[in-house]
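Entry 12.
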Amino acid sequence: MSTEAPRASQADHGPPQERCHVPAEDFAPRPAPSEPLAIVGMACRFPGGVASLDDYWALMAEGRDGIREIPADRLDIDKFYDPRAEAPGKIFVRHGGFLDQPLDAFDAEYFGMSPREAAYLDPQQRLLMEVAFEAIEDAGIPAERLHGSNTGVFIGGFMVDGMLTQFSPLGRDAIGQHSAVSSTLTILSNRISYLLDLHGPSFTLDTACSSSLVAMHQGCQALRGGECDLVMVGGVNVIFRPETLIAMCKGGFLSRDGRSKSFDAVRKDIRPARPHHLWHDRNRRVDRHRAHRDAPRLRDGRTPRPTDRAARS
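Predicted 3D structure (tokens):
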């Protein structure tokens, strides 16, 4: 007995050149170019003791400053500081934005990762994994429901301190089987897609200070074009090597008082401008937005989140 379906005759459907296959997905409603997108879940880590959205709101509402002097456990400021910009091997800044969370504080078992692999992991990947799962929880979506879904991941990042440390000649003998996938920018996005078994596009964007903003734009475009049903967008920035700070000072990218003055008439230094946060010195920053292209979610009372109206195709 044959299980092959009967073949339709050419007379049934006309000449071959007139026939075409239209995927069922093409019949799904697509957002109009001007239709707002719902942000259904968020999570963040910021300087100033910010480890949640409530903390972030309190920081802004109270008008507090997240900038402080470089702590001794991060950098020996007396060894590296010199007010002269031309001083070799020195930095002319004493302040910056620092997370209260230790970079080596990571629950590897929760993410199904062995301690051996976690030891190689770039701190930027650790932070992204944490906030990705927190954002999913904030959205009220069980993680297992995302498995195999057409969800895209768009991450902005451009600092490679983790890779420089692992691939240093001084640590050559410590390079192992997990080094390659634990240190490159590529894996910042791919790690999230792998953990959650997401089948949408997954890539990291490096456009320097605008990386997370461009990632947000690309995610919105993917939703509007029907390429994704859901996107996870974020940015991360971890600087922990003194050489990076030295290079930034020599290039005139850092403000001497540790505060961003982008577009400010009183600024005296060129400053990288990344959206929604102060990027300076050893600032660790990561945020996560989850935007949904299902417009009814804006009206169902389930997602009391902001909407994005800026990105237009």
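Annotation: Residues 1-24, 270-301 have pLDDT under 50 and may be disordered. Strands lie at 37-45, 67-69, 95-97, 151-156, 202-205, 230-237, 285-292, 307-308.
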